[in-house]
Amino acid sequence: MNLEKLLANITVLETKGTLDKEVSVLVFDSRKAVENALYVAIKGVVADGHSFINSAIEKGAKIIVCEALPETINEKITYILVKDSSKALGHLASNFYDNPSKKLNLVGVTGTNGKTSVTTLLFDIFKNLGYPSALISTVEYRIADEVIPSTHTTPDVIRLNEMLAKAVDKGCEYAFMEVSSHGITQDRIEGLHFKIA
Predict the structure, then answer these.
(1) DSSP string, 136-194
(2) Cα angle vertex 39, ends 38, 44, to 5°?
(3) CB of 36 within 8 A of CB of 24?
């Protein structure tokens, strides 16, 4: 995807380098960077992704989204300065996958207890009524009849958009999703468009 298109509706504070670049993949883990990747440096609880910018570049990243520019600027790299990298990642992921949550009736269920039960019941009811649906829960992820092992109650925003895009491709009309308080705090649902919460 073209970088300029990817940056639609994202507030950019400053850019260094050309925006005329193609992006092969989005990553926020420098170890997963590949040729032409866009790496988002996120300040985490344990580690600061800004410390791994050079590592991402060494692995092939050509675009860096960050909250602070590195001391040494590589002329071959495009740097995008934003106020909040974590929030920017949500919108980048939505744009990268062509905003799949806008093409579904996305239902988010949050709270202390009952998220898995409610989302699973809704998925089963809508499936039995003949509506192709997706389920994102603690127990499993389901896209129509495909079952995918669950890794988190609320997956990271890149994986989430990837699964929602797959649901759209498979003709799903509804998606029922557990939304944990951690997921909300960690911006894992940033950029998603919920029909019902």
Answers:
(1) E-SSEEEETTEEEE---SS--HHHHHHHHHHHHHTT--EEEEE--HHHHHTTTTTT---
(2) 155
(3) yes
Report which residue type is found at 109. V
Overall pTM > 0.90 = yes
Q: What are the structural domains of the chain?
A: 3-96 (3.40.1390.10), 100-185 (3.40.1190.10)
Contacts of 89 (CB under 8 A, 6+ apart): 26, 28, 40, 42, 65, 157, 158, 187, 190
Residues 28-73 have pLDDT tens digits of 999 999 999 999 999 988 899 999 999 999 999 999 999 999 999 9
Q: Is the distance from CB of 31 to CB of 66 less than 8 angstroms?
A: no
For the record, the structure tokens of 145 come out as 């009849």
CB atoms within 10 A of CB 182: 11
